[in-house]
Amino acid sequence: MSPARDLMVVLALLGASAGVPFLGGDYWIGVGITAFMWVALTQSWSLLSGLSGYVSLGHVVFYGLGAYVVVASWEVLPIAVSLALAAGAAAVFAFATGMPVLRVRGPYFVILTFGVAELVKFVVMAAEAAAGNASRLILGTPEIETLFFLMLALAAAATVLAWGVRVSRLGHGLRAIREDEEAAETLGVPVARYKLLAFVLSACIPGAVGGAMALRNTYFEPLQAFDPMISFSMIAMAVIGGSDDLRGPVVGAACFVFLSEMLWANAPQLYMIILGLLLVIFVLFVPEGLCGRLFRSRGA
For 129-180, what is the HEC assignment? Predict the structure, then answer.
């Protein structure tokens, strides 16, 4: 299937789900918000890590920064401005940290991105403690239906952005970097610029998503907003669905949300064990993900 058809399929699925608020209750609206959140986050993560091979374990830092910006500006700025600032703050932080962070490769990059996310988390915790805040309660948040359509829009925006990068010169350059960075640079690919641009682009949507989810939760607590499990979950969904396929994050998010709804409330330990086992199995035996195994074998 061509990239354009992949995009239309994903957008059609997202569009079809827009009827959930009119057909289901608050429970299904909440499930939809969670699913759209993971689609948006995983598409953004795949934009960098799936294409370039630079596996980030610190994308939660953009999510947490976005949440912090929205909480700090709530009831001061309109929601649209707050979310734009959240996306912008995440992009600026990615630009500032990307130049040194992207100089390292392989496991060093993975460890460094995780360390940066943890550093920012504790800086925010220290700043909140100095201000006398253990957590922040958010009052007057939008209705759940409004947040549903907002998260749907962010999932669609992340999908379009991921598609745009994939079919552009930037996407081709990132794939060349993934295959052989030295050879790509020798052939004239602006490696440093492409990596930094992908890093910045992959940070924007998570910043806005973090801000929207802070409104959904109606409170902000740094340990929750900067939880490393958010980054781990992005990787798990990308690996299970297929990080090099535009449909992969949707499939991975659907599996993840189904598993979460089935097990998280009643057996959280079993949920984590199953998720870890699935990740190991897919990395070892199905590295192309479900989309790669199902669709490519059929020539779709």
Answer: HHCCCCCEECCCCCCHHHHHHHHHHHHHHHHHHHHHHHHCHHHHHHHHHHHC
Q: Is the pLDDT of residue 233 over 80?
A: yes
Question: For residue 58, what pLDDT is reported?
Answer: 93
Instruction: Please state the separation of Cα 229 from the chain's center in Å.
Output: 12
Nearest partner of 12 among 26, 1, 27, 25, judged by Cα: 1
For 207, the token pair is: 């910043």
**Which residues are CB-contacts of 202 (< 8 A; sequence separation ≥ 6)?**
44, 45, 47, 48, 49, 56, 59, 94
Q: Is 300 helix (H, G, I), strand (E, B) or coil?
A: coil
Mean pLDDT within 65-80: 93
> What percentage of the chain has pLDDT greater than the value 70?
96
If we measure between CA atoms, which residue out of 203, 202, 294 comes closest to residue 248?
294
What is the C-alpha to C-alpha distance for residues 226 and 124, in angstroms, rounded to an integer?
Answer: 10
The answer to whether 159 touches 39, Cβ cutoff 8 Å, is yes
Say how far apart CA 95 and CA 89 lie, in whole Å. Answer: 10
What's the Cα-to-Cα distance from 274 to each of 271, 280, 294, rounded to whole Å? 5, 10, 22
CB 187 within 8 A of CB 74: no
Distance CA 25, CA 244 (A): 35
Confidence (pLDDT) at 155: 97
Question: Which residues, 6 or more positions from 236, have their beta carbon under 8 angstroms from its beta carbon?
Answer: 252, 256, 275, 278, 279
Q: Where are the alpha helices (DSSP H) in the chain?
A: 3-16, 20-23, 26-45, 51-52, 60-73, 79-101, 106-130, 144-167, 169-179, 181-186, 191-217, 222-225, 228-241, 248-263, 268-285, 289-296
In the DSSP assignment, the letter for residue 24 is S
In this prediction, residue 16 has a pLDDT band, given cuts at 50, 70 and 90, of very high
d(CA 176, CA 53): 10
